[in-house]
Amino acid sequence: MEQKIRVLVAKPGLDGHDRGAKVIARALRDAGMEVIYTGLRQTPEQIVSAALQEDVDVVAMSILSGAHNHLFPRVMELMHEQKLDDVLVIGGGVIPDEDIAGLKAAGIAEIFTPGTTTATTIEFIRNNLKR
Amino acid sequence: MPDSPSDQSDRLDTRQLARLISQIERQDIARLGLLSVLHQRTGRAHIIGITGPPGSGKSTLTDKIIGQLRGRGRRVAVLAIDPSSPFTGGAILGDRIRMMRHATDEGVFIRSLASRGHLGGLSRAVAETIRAVDAAGFDDIIVETVGVGQSEVDIVRCADTVVLVAVPGLGDDIQAIKAGVMEIGDVFCVNKADRDGAERVVRETKAMLEAAVLNGAATRFSDLYRAAGQAETATAPATDRAAVSGTHHVAKLLDDPHHAHLRIPAVLLTVAEQGEGVAALVDEIKSHYGLLLATGLLEQHRCDNTAWELRNTVSDRLLAFLDADIVEAALARLAGGVVRRERDFYQALDELFGTVLAVSKSAHFNS
Q: Which residues touch B215 (CB under 8 Å, ≥6 apart)?
């Protein structure tokens, strides 16, 4: 049986805009992936716990509230605690260019800013799976 | 193969369980050793099926049932199944959204499963996944099916107690779920009961259940209520009166002396969004399980279900032989022979069957 790519799509933090996350979720589904959508306003603890139970290959987070410098590294810290180092973590949303290097240093594999096509994201996932 | 427990008394941790389920989903041969070790630790959980049409509130109800069971000190696992696209194989698994408040509770494990082309309301991996979760020490396992229509009844093959969730407003009757799905409930629940028409759905459901009993239809519940009725022939009439109103699990058909022992399942009203009626629903679910245990039907159902699963799995294995190269070659040759009138259809069939049997004798299995 072929290996299905399982992706957790999550919205950490307090902003209430999940249109982008839903667009990504649908695009990944149409690319043949299994997308676990967890909805709005998730804490890093909830996201990592879901990633663990769902045994996902990828965690894709979207954030528009500006709290990315706090929430993304916190997710990475918890992922590491749970030994989920073989899970690809990517982020997206309204994220200033000057913040991207720091987020990558924290372990986020790639940051997709507004204007990125869904095809780019899909290709990145397929080429960068860690297991 | 992920970290298999070296000591049998070790409980699977979340990570081991999650990875074992992935192995089960992709039918990885490496899972078989671990599953074999775990088998002795299975059979203890109460397996609860939640089924009903799309949008009837199954996930929200499941969320509230988890809360109730946690309050009663039970460890709860949920397997939530959503459909895969028949075209791309992709899936959006969204049942979890309604249950995220339990995400960090260590006594709750939630796993979303895509149906991956399996019909019948479940995924092919469900039965095995239930055993894995059971071995991990969960007391209650809730299996939430895909939104069902009329004939997705596989849930009866793996759940001890099936909760059928109906809602008002699905037409002028409960036609949509009358024939197939309606026969598989052990506990009936009319959700969104704050909407118009809920009482009517209850009335119609009860009438349908009573008619099924009076007609002697071999529904899933009729055996149970017959057995339960015979076990306690002299119950107080007052209790029975209460039963008819739907507040007690075993509602007797009081007015018909010829059917004194025939009972129908409870039909309950819930508003899952507000948690209304959920405590009573969980009481009914547990009371049904108690009745299964008391009558010995639990073991009988599980034997029937295991036989069903064995039969299905062996037929999958047999079908797999048809993909063998040598069988494919024989198929092409024999088909040509039939078309050219060198042999008739049944001669070809016999020859093909012989080839399949020969292949099966030298086969190795991975499922």
A: none
Listed in sequence order, the residues at least 6 apart from B340 whose beta carbon sits closer than 8 Å to its beta carbon are none
pLDDT tens digits in sequence order for chain A, 131 residues long: 458 999 999 999 888 888 889 999 999 999 999 999 998 889 999 999 999 999 999 999 999 888 999 999 999 999 999 999 999 999 999 999 999 999 999 999 999 999 999 999 999 999 999 98
Task: Name the residue of chain A whose CA is nearest to B114's CA.
Answer: A34
Instruction: Give ipTM to 2 decimals.
Output: 0.93
List the single residue in A25, A29, A39 with the smallest CB-CB distance to B100.
A39
| Cα A71 to Cα A46: distance, rounded to the nearest angstrom | 12
Quickly list DSSP for B183-245: GG-SEEEE-STTSTTHHHHHHHHHHHHHHHHHTT---HHHHHHHHHHHHT----HHHHHHHHT
Give me the count of residues in chain A.
Answer: 131
Cα(B148)–Cα(B132) distance, rounded to whole angstroms? 25
Separation of alpha carbons A32 and A5, rounded Å: 8
Query: Closest residue of B to A39, CA-based?
Result: B97
CA B127 centroid distance within chain: 9
Q: State the burial class of residue A27 (Cβ atoms within 10 Å of its Cβ: 0-12, 13-18, 19+).
A: middle
- Minimal Cα distance from B91: which residue of A? A34
CB atoms within 10 A of CB B105: 15
What's the pLDDT tens digit per position in B292-314? 999 899 999 999 999 999 998 88
Residues of A in CB contact (< 8 Å) with B are: 1-4, 6, 25-26, 28-39, 42-43, 45-46, 49-50, 52-55, 82-83
Would you call A34 and B109 a contact, using CB atoms and an 8 Å cutoff? no
Which residue matches tokens 């899909």? A122
Q: Which chain A residue shows the shortest CA-CA distance from B99?
A: A38
Give the single-character DSSP code of B26.
T
Contact A1 B26 (CB under 8 A): yes
A55: which chain B residues are within 8 Å (Cβ-Cβ)? 18-19, 21-22
* Number of CB atoms found within 10 A of residue B104's CB: 13
Q: B337 vs chain A: nearest CA distance in angstroms? A: 33
What sign does the CA torsion over B274, B277, B278, B279 have? positive
- Which residue among A39, A53, A55 places its CB closest to the CB of B97? A39
